[in-house]
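I have a small job for you when you get a moment. Can you supply me with one protein entry, sequence and fold together? It will help me judge whether the discrete encoding reads sensibly. Write everything out right here, beneath this request:
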Amino acid sequence: MRAVVYRGVNDLRVETVPVPRIGRGELLVKVAVCGVCPTDIKKIQHGTVPPPRIFGHETAGTIVRTGASVRQFKAGDRVALHHHVPCLKCHYCRHRAFAQCATYKRTGVTAGFEPAGGGYAEYVRVMPFVLPGVVKIPARNSFEEGAMLEPVNTVLKAVRRLSLLRGDVVLVAGQGPIGLMFTRLLQLQGAGVIATDLLESRLKLARRFGARWTWRGDDSELSEEVAHVTRGRGLDAAVLAVPSDALVCQAQGWLRGGGQLLLFAHTRRSAPAVLDLAAVCVDEKDLLGSYSSDFTLQAEVARLVFSRRLDVRPLVTQRFPLEQTADAVRLASRPTPDSLKTVVLPA
């Protein structure tokens, strides 16, 4: 089969590799679509993991073969895959810190080599321990909607970390695909969202996704807008869907006492930002992080996406064949004004 193999920093090659062999409790899935995720982009561009690997974990496709002991799925089922499932028993899982679980950190979907998702290939093998995360795609929904379950899951997990009441005001910085998901899910929860971005085209879409206020301009002037919108109280929460250290410090200052600052995009380790630690202690402003998905939310995520209460279809704007995966990664790492979510179509 054809697959895009990571051979080193910024080195993606279309190669012929064996179709994965499956065991008794496993699935073989023909990949229809795989989203390009910033997490994989960082691994490819910064060489944070050793090659060779086949990346791609936002995957949907059709089951073509099932292992002898698999009963819940059959060949022909259209499915969305979930590559990380926790053990639900360890110390981390008992604290619902699923992304820190050793089982969770294993990748359960592969197209060959060290398991890395495998969606940039024609076929993937789905291992037994991640089968509980596999979701059947309803007939009316597309493979692209199925592939979006994983990123939506990560955002819903993050939203659930916030202690919000209906009518609270939340700033979402960055209106790329992830920021737009935050905007919509927070609006569904009853929050008033201030959406910020440098591109007017994205702010226009943010209004469609439920933003009550939008802002494109200087951050110093934004502080005045926050004061106006909240009548001087300050934000109940701020979500940073862009990896800006300077914005972390600014957003902390925009919070009310007892507000929450959620970091979602700071996934590359760097020097720590300088924060006002007294604001954390005396003003009780919480600094939170959220990383990856929560398998226990998978059924709710499927309902949101497949019912189209969160309609992810407008987010997918660029589609590339498997042979152009390197181009897809480059575009996703430096999006243009008219690009949002980029996907690869191996079929």
User: Anything to note?
Assistant: The mean pLDDT is 96.
